[in-house]
Specification:
- The chain contains nine helices and eight strands.
- It is mainly alpha-helical.
- The relative contact order is 0.06.
């Protein structure tokens, strides 16, 4: 039976596909591109290909993204964030770069290939802070509002703000820590309290909360005295072999 089926398959006429060349039309020429690195003309194999080889791709990326993208320790930390952004011109914070201008985050992205969010994390800026000089920040603030920014009650704008607000953040910037320290230093001193252990009057460092002890030593001594006053429990063995605390 199997031999008959094979014989029938062999006897079937072969159906030839009509190629474009057999119809008399000339074949469609393949699309070619020029490599971004070596400018060599090469056939395009996919929509996103722009390089003739992996070697040219690596060479192009090595020139576009310099060594600073993989070497964050060469990005200087800012000593005073408010003082740094309050200048008329900003200096590049990447070691070896002598650029001076008004839009630092744009320069770092174009010249060094580092995104604004990445350089903010590396340098300690808040993600919502613009790394621009004071004159540029003022001009951007005074420009005319367009699009959804015209109407603050826009549903899309509110949804975007809500999504940003609810997005979990695992990053706390050094700029935020600096602002907290400055705000705390400008606060009014707290009220006068009486230590519960030594009875000395002391002034609370802030007006928030209620400090009960003047020092950590007084607090530890008070807790130790409380522990000594508590009766210590002992355990006794019962007739059935179990223990009971008395």
């Amino acid at each position: 039976m199997q031999a008959e089926n094979l014989a029938g398959i062999r006897e079937r006429p072969t159906v030839r596909s009509h190629s474009k060349s057999s119809s008399g039309r000339p074949p469609i020429p393949k699309e070619t591109i020029h490599c971004r690195e070596c400018n060599k003309e090469t056939p395009k194999t996919s929509k996103t290909r722009a390089y003739c080889s992996q070697v040219c791709y690596r060479a192009y990326m090595a020139k576009r993204f310099d060594r600073h993208i993989a070497n964050p320790q060469e990005i200087s930390l800012i000593q005073g964030y408010d003082e740094f952004l309050d200048q008329d011109e900003l200096e590049c914070i990447i070691e070896g770069c002598t650029w001076v201008g008004k839009h630092l985050s744009l320069h770092i992205n174009l010249a060094h290939g580092i995104q604004a969010s990445e350089v903010k994390r590396a340098a300690g800026f808040s993600l919502s802070s613009g790394i621009v000089a004071k004159p540029l920040a003022e001009s951007l603030r005074q420009r005319e509002l367009v699009g959804v920014a015209k109407n603050p009650n826009t549903i899309g704008l509110e949804l975007a703000r809500l999504a940003i607000k609810n997005k979990p953040k695992k990053y706390r910037s050094k700029e935020t820590n600096e602002h907290l320290l400055k705000t705390r230093s400008l606060m009014i001193e707290g009220p006068v309290r009486t230590c519960l252990h030594c009875g000395i009057d002391f002034r609370q460092s802030t007006r928030f909360g209620k400090t009960l002890y003047c020092t950590k030593e007084c607090r530890a001594a008070k807790y130790a005295a409380i522990d000594q006053k508590k009766p210590k429990k002992k355990r006794e063995r019962q007739l059935n072999g179990t223990f009971k605390w008395v």
